[in-house]
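Cross-posted from the bioinformatics board.
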Amino acid sequence: MSSPRTTARSGPGRPGYDLDSLLSVAVKVFNEKGYEGTSMEALAQRLGITKSSIYHHVSGKEELLDLALGRALNGLFGVTTELEVTSGRYIDRLEHLVRRSVRVLATELPYVTLLLRVRGNSAVERRALARRREFDEIVTRLVTAAVEEGDLRPDIDPALISRLMFGMVNSITEWYRPRGDTSVDQLADAVAHMTFDGLRTRVR
Amino acid sequence: MSSPRTTARSGPGRPGYDLDSLLSVAVKVFNEKGYEGTSMEALAQRLGITKSSIYHHVSGKEELLDLALGRALNGLFGVTTELEVTSGRYIDRLEHLVRRSVRVLATELPYVTLLLRVRGNSAVERRALARRREFDEIVTRLVTAAVEEGDLRPDIDPALISRLMFGMVNSITEWYRPRGDTSVDQLADAVAHMTFDGLRTRVR
């Protein structure tokens, strides 16, 4: 997404903040106050460092956003190239993709939360939206192929299935808290069972 | 939610805006710019009227928010008291609630969109959040009862089912456009089929 900044990454920086921990705090503040509503000044105050210490790591607020969205997107796209998503029956590929996406959401929660709030107000945001659409298209293609293999019901439009399924997956960012009552595995099981097998115990 | 303002509703106002049409524009602007980010000045400009013309109808921005959130909540709570949700097998009540909620979302789209973005920054917002939780509890009770009647799978926590199911339903506000390719009935069918019956064509 952005060019590597080897000097900044390996440079001394202020004690306590490397690029990763800086990014982690920035994303937290973006999610709380909104990206637009967060100034570099406010970010520096929250970090307890000067603005120039932040500029030591990144060129500005937009690069922080770019890095944060890239982290969420790389997590999700990483899933699409896993062996279980690129071979086997399409329904199994799709189920694997859904389960692994739930895991990415839960482990990269603040980054994915930020990604899902992006509305396209800048070039960085529009690029992220384009990659989200690309991800949706991968899902829709898997759904279409699974319908063609006869494993998924053919009476719902594959694009609609893809939207609703990931609507459910993405909604997890609204309430999920790691170290809460629900484990990531329970969450992935619940989503997979509901969408693939349904909640009903008996066939009508 | 707010006390009736009979005089304002029936008063003369400026040509072209009664309270309903004023509210409809206000909600559109709140969704575009964010409620916090919208000033009464900006609202007046968008409406092409003076601020005092708005004050003729409502006491201020917060009353507009209150009325808008009330409209979304009344739509959703209206569903919970329908005959089909208050009698019969619990799985059928739940399915009816889900289908009718999809319809409320689609027909009151901007109002529900605004409701789903509320974060609790004021008394009005916190009251709306409390009513959302009340709605979630109604759903969870229906799920629990349907599990007890043996119609719903017992291996997923009812509160989790309720969250994921309405996560899917609410996600519709992210992309649905009335007069698009998908009708409200198709949407309700898709959600009900996916969550109750599942997408898989054969039992594993």
